[in-house]
Amino acid sequence: MDNQKLHTILQLGESIAVEFKRCGNGIENDVYETVCSFLNRFGGDIFLGVLDDGTVKGVPENAAKDMTKNFIKMISNPEVLSPTVYLSPEILKYEGKTVIHVHVPVSAEVHTCKKHVYDRVDDADVKVTATAAIASMYIRKQNIFTEKRIYPYVTMEDLRLDLLPKIRRMAENNIEGTHVWQNMSDKELLKSAGLFGVDRATGEKGYNLAAVMLLGKDEVIKDICPAYETDALLRRVNTDRYDDREIVDTNLIESYDRLMEFIRKHLPNKFFLEDDQRKNLRNIIAREMVGNILMHREYSSSYIAKLVIEENRMYSENANRAAQDGFLTPDNIEPNPKNPIIASFFRTIGWSDRLGSGVRNLFKYTKFYSGADPEFHEGDVFRLIVPLDDGYSYDLLIGEETGSAIKVGDKKPAIKVGDKKPAIKTGDKKTSATEKRIEVILNIMEDGQEYKADEIAKIVGLKSSRTRELLKILVDDDKLGIVGNKKNRRYFVKK
Predict the structure, then answer these.
(1) What domains can you pick out in the chain, each with its CATH number?
(2) What is the pTM assigned to this prediction?
(3) DSSP character for 282?
(4) pLDDT of 231-252, one tens digit each?
């Protein structure tokens, strides 16, 4: 490691993969706890002779070699670290001081330090005692797909076969031509989808966990995964508790529909054009969030999944078999299926696309929906945050020179609906944001149809009060007519 890289690490400070140890008079015992936690997590780098704040104090130069020898001896002792590992400490010189650097790679085993399991959480080494947490570490280390676990006593009678006609139609609609599932029996379809498998280690045959979660009857799911549920909450007024709540604990097919409906009920649909075609931003975002919380979840965990809608954000949390710890972006995403059978099933029926596309879609369309980027944080608990702004409307922005709506891909500063902007010249004609919004309202109103103000507000993605202001302008200009009293007022296009 060169001094420039070390300088950068010292500036950034401790993290999930970096640990500083003072080690003034020798190597303390907690160094081996850090080695254990790095081995059990994603690896990392230890720097001996550095204070917690990144200040380099150094270790005694004449003792550095003995310290490295003692370190190697200790990590080779099964009473200290089990299974033992071989690491090669590096002695560095930094600003005249001696620093010992130890790189610890990620291990395929679960290690103990003096008979205790340690894990890395943020910048701390944590002793793990809970059986479920230790089991989760083994699952992560051994790359086990728990969805493939065979349940030999689960039969077709334990599955919701009444859902298969719907599933066949969805698969048919998702492709051109006839899907192979159309001509299969129920049992053949389940085998084709990978829901009936063989454990090659034991020879057991039967329906697997993926089959139970996708199509299992509620009581069967409860028997096998008693902690399974998704807690959907709306917290906008009563933030201490909730304004609306739905506990979803049924099969994944019906869970998907119920969670999608929960989001539709509580989020506005905003008007948006992409290549002259209207896109349902709310449904695109909801589809990716719901798909993620159901497809990429570790069902062996007792962690209760959450889907929460607040005033300024919507977020989800679910147990996860993490491959790394940190934030995901379209640039660093690496497709890593957590439940490949369930993910493949969702893709077949049109509820998801190829791996990695969900991250890209959310980064693309969340910006159009609320003017900001989502956040993906991968760890043992996967967190996805989508910012919300009911007043934001991307597709009602005005081009700085053309006076036309900004198209997808144009880089323009986002503005919120209701912001006052100066009129923009287009030749000799002035076009304001208000005039553009009025034009959008007229375009979506069909001749002969009557609309309530709230209906128009939902379609164009504006607040009801602002929509009524625009409708009054149209009425005053004799472009719209009114029927009904104030309470039941409806608007129509005048010919």
Answers:
(1) 3-129 (3.30.950.30), 147-224 (no CATH), 230-387 (3.30.565.60), 416-493 (1.10.10.10)
(2) 0.62
(3) H
(4) 999 999 998 899 999 999 999 9
